[in-house]
Amino acid sequence: MAKSCKGLAEELVKCLSESTCVKVEKRSIRDCTGEKSPCIPSECVGLRETYFNCKRGQVDMRARIRGNKGY
């Protein structure tokens, strides 16, 4: 279960590294993830929300019994 969100994390980093927030504005990926900036594509925003839900499912006791929905 610890690695069930790994694929989402890799996709999110890949998406953000190709965004204008990182390329043009020369900001770090960590700075770009925390913001709701218009320079971040909607695909990355969707991946960020899915990754958040995956991580939240790891601490949810009901999901721990059933197992987290993998990527």
Structural features, described:
- This is Cytochrome c oxidase assembly factor 5.
- One of its GO terms (cellular component) is mitochondrion.
- It comes from Arabis nemorensis.
- 63% of the residues lie in helices and 0% in strands.
- It is an all-alpha fold.
- The chain has one domain (5-61).
- The model has no long low-confidence stretch (mean pLDDT 83).
Please describe the structure with a list of short key phrases separated by commas or semicolons.
71 residues; elongated; single chain
Q: How many domains comprise the coordinates? A: 1
Q: Bin the strand percentage.
A: under 5%
Q: Please tally the β strands and state the result.
A: 0
Derived from helix and strand composition plus strand pairing, the structural class reads mainly alpha
GO biological process, one term: mitochondrial respiratory chain complex IV assembly
InterPro entries: Cyt_c_oxidase_assmbl_Pet191 (IPR018793)
Pfam families: Pet191_N (PF10203)
GO cellular component, one term: mitochondrion
